[in-house]
Amino acid sequence: MSYVTPGTSVGTSEYAALLKNTFPTKAIQDLGEGSTRVVMLLDRRTDAGQTIENPVDLEVPGVNSGNFAKAWANATGGASKKFLMEPANFYRVAFFDNRTFRATQNKKNTYKNVIKKTEDVMRKSGSRLEELCFGGVGGALARIASGTTLTGAVATLTSKSAALKFQVGAKYVFSDTNGTGSLRDSGATLTCATIDKKEGRVTFSANLNTVTGIADTDYIFNEGDYGEGMAGFQSWLPSGANRDTDLGTSFFGITRSAYPTELGGIYVDGTGGPIHEVIRELVADTCSIHSGEPDKLLMSHRARRDLGTEAHSFGKLELVRAESQRGAYGVDVERVNVDGRILDIITSPYCPDDELYALQWNTWTLHSMGEAPDFLHIGADMFQPVEGADKHALRVGGYAQLACNAPGKNGVAKITVS
After folding, report:
1. Mean pLDDT of the chain
2. Whole-structure pTM value
């Protein structure tokens, strides 16, 4: 067999100007899109005003006695509280330069993807709303783990799932309190450079101690979010070491320490224990203390993984379809029998790894001023021209607040995941 001895080879570099380029025919996947499973299932009210009144009935009038005279003399008028809530703001602004539109408007696929980006912005805002549902009024995104090296640029987070809330290029501020004090270094910011979403680590563009006074265990916030969060599940059902402090702090004008379970929900410290046993205790307490009827279990994907490992001790997990509040479509959830009570398991990437909720779903309502999220513009044009620049702005967001009319029929547990 003979071979041809090659001379000067001609490759793609020599003919780069003549080679064709093709655009992918498959849909481009958005790796920045989050989850809206919980938001889709919540009861929604879109007629909120400047203030939302949320009453909670605490005590029935009268007292018990085997003696009529004593029942008469000691009779009480009952007790109730009313939370006066204001919708919280959440915004997302995206800029699109006109040249991009001009360059793509005659190409079938690329123009579609420009329009898709507007839909992606809206979906990301929906994910932000779900993120807020698992947060608190303080506005913290995450907390720096104890032992983090402050002379480096990497912040290890106390909950790995919290890393999903960060975005490369965004700016963040720090504080030793969750929205109730002041920011470190007068609000000095650090910019996110990279994110390890699996291990729960965020690398910033400068060392952490660039921010004067920063400490491990500090809270991290989006710039502009300090003290501006929505009252999510963490606020309504406080847990952990700060529970007593949170119950003793005014919450929409109400101090809850006199009625800790009625106004702050049932709490179980399940750290270090098997998750399935924590669930059994939490559901039992939620049912027995204030006659709650929990029908939803909310947890992180890591907690669900550990629960699956324990499933042989817990019960059969069955995949079912839950009805959505946002249209005809549904959401896939798992259903489980907890000592005779059937509950849906809903996993969310925004649920902290160390928290688990047993909720009576009909006690929760997501209020908003109109649809949330929505395009924030007046008039027919979705894109608003930017004065002095060759670009248009897409403004998306909303004004929303999560309300619970019977916190005592709901429960939260601190757990440990592997």
Report:
1. 86
2. 0.86
